[in-house]
Amino acid sequence: MKGFRSGFVTLVGRPNVGKSTLMNHLIGQKIAITSNKPQTTRNRIQTVYTDERGQIIFLDTPGINKAKNKLGSYMLTVATRTLNEVDVVLWLVEPSTFIGKGEEYIIEQLKKVKTPIILIVNKIDTVEQQQVLEAIEKYKDVLDFADIIPVSALRSRNTDDVLTTIYKYLPEGPMYYDENTITDQPERQICAEIIREKALRCLDQEIPHGIAVMIDTMKKRRRKDIIDIEATIVCEKDSHKGIIIGKQGRMLKKIGSQARAGMENLLDMQVNLQLWVKIQKDWRESDFLMKNFGYDKKEI
């Protein structure tokens, strides 16, 4: 199709800078989980945006920061490998003139990349316009950016400009996915991520790093729009298990209730969700357990 552009775009940035929020907004549907805690995105999530101009395949990667354990090393590998496999890199930063160690580390990674880099100054709704201009001034010379766009992913400000700018740098090419495709993630994986998101939002700061979620069974009832899902939240410590379950099971019920609503929205049917909690000490240091919990074997 003449004039039809297509290609792969990755979003990088420090944890919590808004990568998943921006991607979810651009494709118009929630696929990547979001929270205000680090390590929310652990796998490279692929989503697809198609319109009359072309098709953009987004790769939302884990936040780039130095690894502290095997899970951290895995996440860093996923994030940095992607940089050389795409047509455009979106680097998201916050509207600050302070370039810290996290940003400096990303700059070092991006210096090795020949791909066009678009700087996205996100969260412009949280500061005065003058501060946005000062942030752009501070960042504009650290790398040779193809473009710089200030946005608010949360408030949908200037997000259309992001799509228009991406298309400028994509080559003419084929439609890789059917126009109705939104993600390559299987429903089981998305459901597991929804549970993990709700746990991230409900639990204390120190616990979420050490949890994983497994979907044990997922069965649709015959002749009924009801799906039965059994899932296990895996944690590393006895004390964590008690906190996740909560007094008289209240915390687990809260996580389950919020997760069920998210799944029903995704699957467009009633969900009967049963949640369990299991201890698996030091799973983040085990290649075998990480593979069991759904982390891509090719990246370990």
Q: Biggest sheet, strands in spatial order?
A: 2-3-1-4-5-6
What general form does the structure show?
globular
Radius of gyration computed on alpha carbons? 20 Å
The average pLDDT value, as a whole number, equals 80
Helix content: 25-40%
Largest sheet: 6 strands, mixed
> Hey, roughly how much beta strand do the residues contain?
15-25%
Helix-and-strand structural type: alpha/beta
N-to-C SSE series? Answer: EHEEHEHEHEHHEEHHEH
Task: Give a verbal description of the structure.
The chain is α/β, with parallel strands linked by helices and 300 residues long. Helix content is 34%, strand content 22%. It has helices spanning 19-27, 70-82, 101-110, 129-139, 159-169, 187-202, 238-245, 250-267, 287-292, and strands at residues 5-12, 45-51, 54-60, 88-93, 117-121, 147-150, 212-220, 226-235, 270-279. The strands form 2 sheets. It has a 6-stranded mixed sheet, with helices on both faces. The protein has a 3-stranded mixed sheet with strand order 7-8-9. The longest helix has 18 residues, at 250-267. The two termini are 38 Å apart. Residues 32-43 have low confidence and may be disordered.
